[in-house]
Fold this protein.
Amino acid sequence: MGAGALGGWTALHLVRLGWGVTLVDAWGPGNGRASSGGETRVIRRSYGHRDHYVPLVTRALDLWTELEAEAGVRLMDRRGVLWLASDPGEFERSSIDAFRAGGVPFEELNRAELEARFPSICVADVPWAVFEPDAGALLARRGCEVVWRAVERTGGRTLRSTAYPDLDSNGDCRGVRLADGTVLDAEVTVFAAGPWMPELFPNVLGRRLEVTRQDVFSFGPPPGAEAHLSLPVWAEHAAQVFGDDSFWYGIPDGLSRGFKLGEDTHGGPWDPTHGDRVVDPARLDRARAYLAHRFPGLAGAPLIDARVCQYTMRERSEILVDRHPGAARLWLVGGGSGHGYKLGPAIGEVAARAIADDAEVPEALAALRLQP
Ligand SMILES: Cc1cc2nc3c(=O)[nH]c(=O)nc-3n(C[C@H](O)[C@H](O)[C@H](O)COP(=O)(O)OP(=O)(O)OC[C@H]3O[C@@H](n4cnc5c(N)ncnc54)[C@H](O)[C@@H]3O)c2cc1C
């Protein structure tokens, strides 16, 4: 249930393992309310000291690449990811340690090299950077649609409806109840409902997952500044810009929608069903200030697209794959917002294997288990 990056891929892996699967989504794959909606997401293996994600991203890169070839549709833009670092750059230094350990290609660039290679970025306050050449951007909504179609092609069934867990008298889950009252029986039910998980499972997840609004902006380079659209994906912990711990990232030119810019700082609580998705003018002002500082050629560039999305956060934004503690036939997959999209293929695989083998999830994810 749920055809975002996590639910869609879990369903696809289960069908590939020979299970009969029905993938249900209330508003369709990568819809405008889903966390997997919108045009693009970053895919990178820079994770600082959280190096347990590096092999998962490596696996995800392979699976996205395979699906791209199988479907004959572009899903990735491997234009590289550039991390602008401060000194000492603890996050980037630990990422480099993990790159070395995992055989991930990277380049370390000093300021002079940055200026020569990326003249449209103002790096006067950036002493060095790390470049991940085979990372880049994923086409988010498109990826969910392609996974949905791959489920159908592989023999699974897809359905658009709101679904709720259908519990038996012991509290275990025997399937889902759809909005029209239809009951779908299932040996195993998986809920991967992104930001809807806390309201679906308030007792188990209400306090564990927090849903926050996130505003994302795309600016249109003026004539003469089109070169900005050829930059790599970039990110930085921007203490040198605002003197705070804000984290900024951007994806130039995702599906020709402009120069996308986002701030990772969490917004307020958010209702993913009923919230009007109108961007916050204060956030827009801050984005413009950041843009003018780091990309002076885009100072005053017009806003050409904007979205309000939402994070579903668990401790340290870790990802949840586990059985519901009171219902052995019900699995819950979620959390990880801010970084979960790219991991969909790998987390879906972990979840599908655990479900098919009736096994525990691997150690790296088991640390976050819901079981007592
Ligand atoms: C602004 C922003 C930037 C991000 N940047 C990145 C990034 O650069 N890289 C990255 O990897 N990740 C990024 N993420 C995180 C990533 O997008 C999410 O972690 C991921 O998309 C979550 O996928 P999901 O499948 O858990 O949830 P969703 O995509 O929200 O999917 C849940 C689905 O469940 C459906 N649903 C909900 N309730 C029901 C119900 N009762 N019945 C039926 N269907 C239901 C919904 O319609 C939805 O389609 C970002 C997120 C945001 C918001």
